[in-house]
Amino acid sequence: MAKPLMAKATAVWLVDNTTISFKQIADFVGMHELEIQGIADGDVAQGVKGFDPVANSQLTQDEIDEAEKNPLHKLKLKHNPAAVGEEKRRGPRYTPLSKRQDRPNAILWLVKFHPELADAQIAKLVGTTKPTIQTIRERTHWNIANMQPIDPVALGLCKQSELDAAVQKAAAKKAKDGETMSDDERRKLLSTEQSLSMDPEPKMPTAIEGLETFTLSESHDDEDDKSRDHVPDADSFFNLPDSSDDEEDDDR
Question: What residue spans carry the Basic and acidic residues bias annotation (predicted)?
């Protein structure tokens, strides 16, 4: 359901100028009923100037009158022809200065985990250019050594719904083209929520990589067993002559 502009200011105006119930106002502006009650008590939105929804073509007076008569009536946002298509973004996405340094990390994440996405889709998601995406794909970016893949949704560069829609569109295009996908590629085409819920793949530390097939041969085991069985006694370490031989030498 579409929400009015300046929801809190609109709620302030409705509380001050109408007898509409808190529940009706809360449903209309997308706030909690307790917040509306807080506005009426003066605990919430202090200093916020009311925004007249009638004067700004968000509500009609007839709609307000009907809601005041019937507590179960739900306020409906007035259709404004001038606002049609207003939410549709045209041109490149604007990225705040504070988040522009995170764009390369987001591009690296998309290239790594969703290689099926076209450059145009990535550019639209994070607000970048195709040459930048190409340098990251080819790992020729000037700062590639210091970059880490980070989810663009976590960085606030795009919405989860936008990312899922782009991934599904790429999957549909790939299926339409008749290209066969491997199991790994098919798993990557899942939404981010689904991929995060999957069990992580077991990883082997690089320090012991290659030793998983190492086994001791039987010959070594046999030699170890023989060495354990043959334990020399203490006398074998000292080659002492017999006492009888010493007595014969003394007699001579």
Answer: 174-190
**132 CB-contact burial (10 Å; exposed 0-12 / middle 13-18 / buried 19+):** middle
- Average model confidence (pLDDT) across the chain: 75
Residue found under tokens 């502006």: 29
What does the alpha-carbon distance between residue 211 and residue 59 come to, in Å, rounded to a whole number? 72
Residue 81 CA, chain-centre distance (Å), reads: 37
Best mean pLDDT range from 38-42, 76-80, 83-87, 136-140: 136-140
Closest to 80 in 3D by CA, of 59, 57, 48: 57
Phi, psi at residue 71, to the nearest 5°? -65, -15
Cα(54)–Cα(23) distance, rounded to whole angstroms? 19
The torsion angle over the Cα atoms of residues 190, 167, 169 and 108, rounded to 10 degrees, is: -150
CA distance linking residue 28 with residue 66, whole number of Å: 14
pLDDT digits (tens, 9 = 90+) for 95-145: 777 778 889 999 999 999 998 899 999 998 998 899 999 999 999 999 999
What gap in Å lies between CA 92 and CA 235, rounded to an integer?
Answer: 91
DSSP 202: P
Q: How far is CA 100 from each of CA 93, 114, 130, 143, 156, rounded to the nearest angstrom?
A: 11, 21, 16, 14, 11
How far apart CA 15 and CA 22 sit, in angstroms, is 8
